[in-house]
Amino acid sequence: MDGFGSDFSAGGSGGKIDAGTIMEQVKVQIAVANAQELLQRMTDKCFKKCIGKPGSSLDNSEQKCIAMCMDRYMDAWNTVSRTYNSRLQRERARIMRTSTVQHWSRCTSSAAQHPLVCHSHRQMRPVDSDP
């Protein structure tokens, strides 16, 4: 079986599918697929760059070229990944700040019309009450 079927039918959940478990399995599968793609691209690129005439073994210069190529490829990939993740985190933080400002703006502008003011996403209290 593919790993999903047995997890869904077994367990104490009474046949219910656990969304958290499914998400974790999907994340693992995506990570594995990404690693496989990275390895395949790196292999293709370095093979084309370093192997002039394929044979039964690699000579010393081909081995060195492959090692250097793979090191450079991984370094570049790691740099791009770190930069991408950093930008993604900054963008998420910016979006959260923007949505928080919008949320507070809506809450305070509606305070004149309604006796409640938002103090968090879950809590509201009367304007004239003490904290």
Automatic annotation (TrEMBL):
- Locate the transmembrane regions by residue number: none
Predominant location category = mitochondrion
In this chain the Tim10-like domain maps to: 25-85
Q: Which GO terms describe its molecular function?
A: metal ion binding
Question: Which keywords fit this entry according to its UniProt record?
Answer: Chaperone, Disulfide bond, Membrane, Metal-binding, Mitochondrion, Mitochondrion inner membrane, Protein transport, Translocation, Transport, Zinc
Q: Which domain of life is it from?
A: Eukaryota
Compartment(s) where it occurs, according to its Swiss-Prot or TrEMBL record:
Mitochondrion inner membrane
GO CC, one annotated term: mitochondrial intermembrane space chaperone complex
- Any Pfam family from its record, for instance, is zf-Tim10_DDP
Q: Does the keyword Iron apply?
A: no
Gene Ontology biological process = protein insertion into mitochondrial inner membrane; protein transport
**What membrane topology does this protein have?**
Peripheral membrane protein
Keyword Protease attributed: no
Assembly with partners or alone: Heterohexamer; composed of 3 copies of TIMM8 (TIMM8A or TIMM8B) and 3 copies of TIMM13, named soluble 70 kDa complex. Associates with the TIM22 complex, whose core is composed of TIMM22.
Q: What does it do?
A: Mitochondrial intermembrane chaperone that participates in the import and insertion of some multi-pass transmembrane proteins into the mitochondrial inner membrane. Also required for the transfer of beta-barrel precursors from the TOM complex to the sorting and assembly machinery (SAM complex) of the outer membrane. Acts as a chaperone-like protein that protects the hydrophobic precursors from aggregation and guide them through the mitochondrial intermembrane space.
| Free-text note regarding domains | The twin CX3C motif contains 4 conserved Cys residues that form 2 disulfide bonds in the mitochondrial intermembrane space.
Family of the protein in this entry:
Belongs to the small Tim family.
What name appears for this protein in its UniProt entry? Mitochondrial import inner membrane translocase subunit
